[in-house]
Amino acid sequence: MTPPPARPGATGRDPGLQPERTRLAWRRTTLTGAVIAVLAAKSALHGGPSVAGVTAAALCAMLWLALLALAHRRIRALTASRPSALTPRTATTAVLCTVALAVCGAVLVF
Length: 110
Hints:
Blueprint: H1 18-45, H2 51-77, H3 88-109
Helix pairs in contact: 1-2, 1-3, 2-3
Transmembrane segments: 51-70, 91-109
Pfam family, one: DUF202
Domain DUF202: 14-77
């Protein structure tokens, strides 16, 4: 299927699928974080709750909420005709939340 011809004088961005793929990637990332948070809570409560387990599970939940907020903000930004670039601060925060979720999950497993 060929894309529709551009209107004369149109200065909008290319209507390709890249923004949709990016939105889907953010959604997959938040879904993965949700699974990690749920498994962390399950692991923390398995065999009786402990202070360390509940603390790690609560930290996982907070990290997931932070990642969810970042992803939602980025998904909203992608709806603009000219979305702004992802700032280094936002990218760094998303990476740190993801790594911290993995570390909390590993702590609960071992």
